[in-house]
Amino acid sequence: MNLREVLPSRWETMHRDGLVVTALLIAAGFGFLACIVVADSLTVYAWLWAALLLVAAAAPHSGGAQVLIPTAPLVWWTANADALTGWSVAAAVLLLATWGLLTLLSAAPDGPPVNRTVAGRYLQRCLLIAAVPVGVWLVARGLSSQGQEYIVVSIVALLVLAAGILLLPQLTVSAPAQQGRGRNDGADPVNEVGSD
Amino acid sequence: MPSARSLIFRTQVSPEAAAHLRWRPTPSLLQAMVAAAAASLLAMLTRRLDLLVLASPFIVAAAWGLISKPTQIPRIAVELNPTQLQEGQSTRWRLFVDDVAGCDHLVTVLAPTPHTVTDPAAGASLTAVTGETVTIEATVQIQRWGRPEIGRAALTAVGPLNAYRCGPLATPGQRVMVTPTTETFALRALAPHPDGVVGLNRSRRRGDGSEFADIRAFQPGDRLRHIHWPVSARTGELHVRTSYAEEDAEVHLVVDAALDVGVSDGLHGAASSLDRAVRASAALSHALLQRGERVGLVIRGRTLHHLPPRGGQLQQRRILDTLTDAVPRTVDGGRRIFADPRMRLSPGSLVILLTPMIHRESIDQAQRFAARGHTVVVVDCLPPDVRIAGAEEDPMIALTWRARRLERELDIERLNRAGVPVVPWRGPGSLDSVLRQLAGRPRPVVQRR
Questions:
Q1: CB B329 within 8 A of CB B261
Q2: How much of chain A is in helix, strand and coil states, percent to nearest 5?
Q3: C-alpha closest to that of A99 among A3, A4, A1, A24
Q4: Which residues of A touch B121 (CB under 8 A)?
Q5: How far apart are alpha carbons A141 and A153 in whole angstroms?
Q6: R_g of chain B computed on alpha carbons
Q7: CA separation, residue B255 to residues A40, B14, B330, B357, B405 (Å)
């Protein structure tokens, strides 16, 4: 995939919604890098990941975009942050946002506007998933601490996590099952040609 | 205005195709799975809880995607309405998608067709699935006459979180008939040498008609209502008013579609030579048929189309339908384009040859018609500001085109010397003056072959 060809082509055809999503993707990616800086220090791997992020934003279907998310934990690992740092939660949420925006970008061609219902579903699901790292972090903190107050917090966090996972399959698609049904009832679906 | 016809056709994925069509994991799902696996592994090996925090959303996202994998293959039905329209008009394309339970959204891309404008732009749309059936609509405005194939599209069904995709499912296209516009055109000059029975053209013969000819003495057989009473009272003898008969003319429109010179940008853009010939034929036939003439049509392109001369509005419909089939023949192949044994011209018929005058055969044919004694008018359909593809980049093409245009000027001069007028098509009124001049000439004697 030649970026010199892809970029002008995308720039010509992209809807402004796509530009907004791309801008949000870059912002979320750099937010993740900012979390690394705040948690510890910026390594050379972080710079490489930033370059990869820009490639992914320019061409969401490129090879660079495919390795962006899998390499992010390695970049975080090389930063040697504190194991129980609260910034890991922010980093996890921002990385999830990066993945969600990249997924939304690659789910459709650049030309049409982003359907508001579809974007709303992505947001709803990502927000739901974003609760998971918060819960995991709270549990980890609770287990690592000897304080009584953290045991209560850990139990609450585990309950939230379990409820979230149980609810997941029901939140996939809202399907008013009968809507539009019956239009093709009784019709022969094979190469039926009619004119009026 | 052509009557709107709709055509609904449905397709179902065949078992063979369905075997290839299945819900496949996407790179997004793989990214989430690899990120989750890598971060979890690192967390376990290095005993780092922060890496587990990083891995946790991707573990859930990957699990969500795997759990919510749709199972049904969507079924599609396509509707196109209308399938018969004029250039510049729009047709509505509808795609009905069934069995989409479990899908999150559908991505549709209409195949690009030349000289069409689609709404949504480029025919691409993203539709959220909110039930078991989804209807996707697009409006396609067709800007050039012909029989374009509309409605070929690719549909991709996407699962929740873009974890699985099914498709693309190809939807079949349908050829629609797009007739040329008939611009408002009033042909004021009459046909030069009409030879029919009834019509609007003044005949040389006396007979029933509205145009006054003479007053003469009453003869046995004259109708009483033709008696001119003032003159009869003055002279004391019965006199009758005579008039010229009115008759129709036989007009043959011959469209030279062997070559299409220039670039066509649709109804409101630049016109190629064939665009001008087809639109001029539509306008001429409309004006002539409205006036009561009998009009025939011959199109000489990739295939030969021949409509014998007839009158009436039905003939206009036939002519417009036939004009949509005009396809240029890019390679001559050594065959004679104008060898048409079916074309029979009555004495006195008017032949209007619409040609860009690039192909030598059309010029020879005009001369042959004239030599046989028919009244021939050549309508030059080459656009004055014609754009030749590649002429700007390649100086040799530009030079060759210039040489051909010079030869063409000589051909026009040769035709004019042979008594065949060549009129550039400039829209309504192009033929008025030349038809008046031809009417002033003596009636030609048609030679039998």
A1: no
A2: 70, 0, 30
A3: A24
A4: 111-112
A5: 9
A6: 33
A7: 80, 44, 15, 11, 20
Judge: B68–A173 Cβ closer than 8 Å, yes or no: yes
* Chain B CB within 8 Å of residue A31 CB: no
Q: Could you give the C-alpha distances from A17 to A14, A111, A116, B103, B268, in angstroms and in order?
A: 8, 9, 10, 22, 31
Min Cα distance B117 → chain A (Å) is 14
Note if the pTM is more than 0.90.
no
Structure tokens at A55: 């490639």
Residues of B in contact with A76 (CB under 8 A): 50-51, 54
Other beta carbons less than 10 A from residue B187's beta carbon: 20
Q: Among A129, A171, A98, which residue's Cα sits nearest to residue B60?
A: A129
Task: Please list the helix, strand and coil fractions of chain B in percent, rounded to the nearest 5, in that order.
Answer: 30, 30, 40
SS (H, E, C) A142-157: HHHCCCHHHHHHHHHH
Phi and psi at B398, nearest 5°, equal -65, -40
pLDDT per residue as tens, chain B (449 positions): 444 455 555 555 556 666 678 889 999 999 999 999 998 888 888 888 888 888 889 988 898 888 888 888 888 888 888 888 888 888 888 888 888 888 889 998 888 888 888 888 777 888 888 878 888 888 999 988 888 888 888 889 998 888 999 878 888 788 888 988 876 655 555 555 555 555 555 555 666 666 777 888 888 888 888 888 998 989 988 888 887 766 667 888 999 888 888 888 878 888 888 888 898 888 888 888 887 788 889 888 888 888 888 888 888 899 999 999 888 876 554 455 555 545 677 776 788 899 888 877 788 888 888 887 788 889 888 888 887 877 788 888 888 888 888 988 888 888 888 888 888 888 767 777 777 776 666 655 555 54
* Å between A72 CA and nearest CA of chain B: 8
- Token digits of residue B58: 């991707």
Q: What number of residues does chain B have? A: 449
**ipTM reported for the complex, 2 dp:** 0.80
Quick one: tokens of B71? 């199972």
Closest by Cβ to B53, choosing from A88, A174, A193: A88
Distance, in Å, from the CA atom of A68 to the CA atom of A55, rounded to the nearest integer, reads: 9
